[in-house]
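Can't attach files on this board, so I'm pasting raw text. These are the components:
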Amino acid sequence: MTDPQTREQTVLEAVGQRRELVNEAITEELPIKSPERLYEASRYLLDAGGKRLRPTVLLVVGEALTDVEPMSADYREFQSLTDEPVDLMAAAVSVEVIQSFTLIHDDIMDDDDLRRGVPAVHKEYDLETAILAGDTLYSKAFEIMVETDAPPERVVAATDTLASTCTKICEGQSLDVSFETRRDVDPDEYLEMIEQKTAVLYAASAAIAGELLSADEEVVDALYGYGLDVGRAFQIQDDVLDLTVPSDQLGKQRGSDLVENKQTLITVHAREQGVDVGGLVDTDSVEAVTEPEIDDAVATLEEAGSIEYANQTARDLVQRGKSRLEVLPDNEARDLLCDIADYLIERGY
Amino acid sequence: MTDPQTREQTVLEAVGQRRELVNEAITEELPIKSPERLYEASRYLLDAGGKRLRPTVLLVVGEALTDVEPMSADYREFQSLTDEPVDLMAAAVSVEVIQSFTLIHDDIMDDDDLRRGVPAVHKEYDLETAILAGDTLYSKAFEIMVETDAPPERVVAATDTLASTCTKICEGQSLDVSFETRRDVDPDEYLEMIEQKTAVLYAASAAIAGELLSADEEVVDALYGYGLDVGRAFQIQDDVLDLTVPSDQLGKQRGSDLVENKQTLITVHAREQGVDVGGLVDTDSVEAVTEPEIDDAVATLEEAGSIEYANQTARDLVQRGKSRLEVLPDNEARDLLCDIADYLIERGY
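---
Top answer:
Structure tokens for the assembled complex are below.
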């Protein structure tokens, strides 16, 4: 058994190594060109940071699948299972670009002012530019996916996965918005929503690596399942962290989900336990809420067992996700994918 | 020489026949499913009407290229030049779906309340739903393109064309927005903007038919050029019609481009002729402007030769566009593509 701290170190190092390469590739694939304002706005959030977890998953899946030592091969000319060179890095950039597009449009829809510690794109620029920057990233992601130069039938499969994933993300966001005015969402519905809104992009990241590198359908399906499981676990952990991590580390007000009446697995569970979730925090603006108010709310949720329920659900998902990787060769990269899964629910922020 | 009225009849009949099939295919490719509100909003503008000109161009190019009699073949199993069945109708729906997505997002950006005589999606629903409906159509268009089931390398080419077209549309829209605050746009810049904002989707419609049906690169390029030329002519004619067609036929206030200080080929030409374009219409809301005010403005533009300049530019583009079709076999469908080109600048609304 690896202890969480060693694992955190391993994962952060692996993510950090790839992040540098991914960031470099983003500037190559998305140069600032005319019209400059549009491309600057498109790059704004990508340049503001982000762990690059999804690209990392995609790249490490490639390594595990083809049984090469982590960071030993050129991601730009990555040998597939049938010995064709594939630009796996382009695919990694593609999924990150989709992630960035969804964040830009989500921030408009949720009217969030801050993201990654900087103003949201529609605040830094304006609504029109933010809509258009998101739309530009959207098509760019497909252009970049074609540049992977995998065998055509594999590019078609990856493109199809990317497109259907985007559709599901929209459906998930639509469900999320509709949940805001509903008071009867149950945990299963909530899990389905985060599967569509968040987990599918992890699933696509893992599956697309398999598709481009000519893995069998069964392996691609298992990779997709891994991403769905750990992606849901990731989102549940995000919801837990919103309640438990100090605001300055979180980059936004702790407990903002409660203030904004956003449903989480924690609140839908608590409601089922008879907690008056709507009354947990009386203040209705994140600017005005106080830390003691949040502390009280968290204590109530802990008492109802809701935070432990969320933690346990996330742990179960990670366990199942890891077991799906048994279709892959037993190697260092596969171990890293397991560590990433564990890290996603052990991370402190 | 066909006279314009006979031609109009021919084109409207051809467009009408295909429109029915396209509308049927839209309901098949985009069924209303859960989450219903999202899919209803996505379909709202598609169901509100539209001539389906781009799908018609795509389908007729397919007929001209493979030398079959118009409306004689099944678009869902259309024989390519290499005798593979291609679902050409799916491609036709795909470009129309992209067109609809751009209208939804453009109406938000331009804050337009009406479209096709009905409220814009962000007015009928709300901003969040309109953004998301556009995003859903965006990915659906790529999913539907994959369903054409053409040989994989052909699907990749068509997908790439669709994606780069969407990027160009965003660039064009960004230029259009930036023009609103500039007073020194010249005709060449304006023509470049409408090429990116409008013409590329006509170009893509024509080229994608060629790509999917296994045409040579030279033919695909010529088809793309045809679309670019007639697409620009179409937009210029739209700008002319905004000044010359009564409001009730237009479905919006005549002269609204002038009221909103929107640049057109007409106004950028007039400015070069020394006309004080900003002072043509003093009223700054389309609700308050009067018909005599528009009449005076139009008279000034006519005097400056700007409307004739726009008409002549459109005619030249149509002429060049038609000449590009000489790469195709001489047949009824090719004649129809020429008629469509002429009709686009002869139409009254």
